[in-house]
Specification:
about 150 residues, mainly alpha, two-stranded antiparallel sheet
Length: about 150
């Protein structure tokens, strides 16, 4: 009788521990970026606004850091910090553009904004998207050499 009671308590404890685990979802590898595939540029592609190096840096770092146990928001902040040089370069280009003194309006929110604020929003939003995308797809991170991601300038 005593061994049966012990067995019941053990099974109940195992059941409770299993309830504490996060549910696992099936990965969708079709949403992953293939970092080994050559980049293809479309004919008639829009004029480069300087965001491409920032976007590439953010994508690579987000995929690389997505497997951490931190929240996706914390990962996206780390990604932006890792890509600060690319973001600063892009912001410097915006500062050097001629300014007619007119205020800018965000095309997304309609609120008053600046190019640097929009660059910052773009970078944070992309970092969050790519971190969640990499987690959802259980994606393979890009190659790195000695702690430096290949393809990040």
């Amino acid at each position: 009788m005593r061994s049966h009671l012990t067995a019941v308590f053990c099974l109940a404890a195992i059941g409770l521990v299993a309830c504490n685990e996060q549910p696992r979802f099936a990965a969708n590898s079709k949403i992953c970026t293939d970092f080994k595939a050559p980049k293809v540029t479309a004919i008639g592609a829009p004029i480069d606004d300087g965001s491409a190096p920032v976007d590439e840096c953010v994508r690579r770092w987000a995929y690389s850091l997505a497997s951490s146990r931190d929240t996706a928001d914390a990962v996206s902040k780390a990604v932006v910090a890792a890509c600060n040089t690319s973001l600063s370069r892009w912001n410097r280009q915006a500062i050097e553009l001629p300014n007619d003194g007119a205020g800018a309006t965000s095309l997304t929110t309609g609120e008053p904004t600046t190019p640097i604020a929009e660059h910052n929003n773009f970078t944070h939003n992309r970092a969050l998207l790519y971190a969640v995308q990499a987690r959802a797809g259980a994606c393979t991170p890009p190659p790195a050499t000695n702690g430096v991601l290949d393809g990040v300038s």
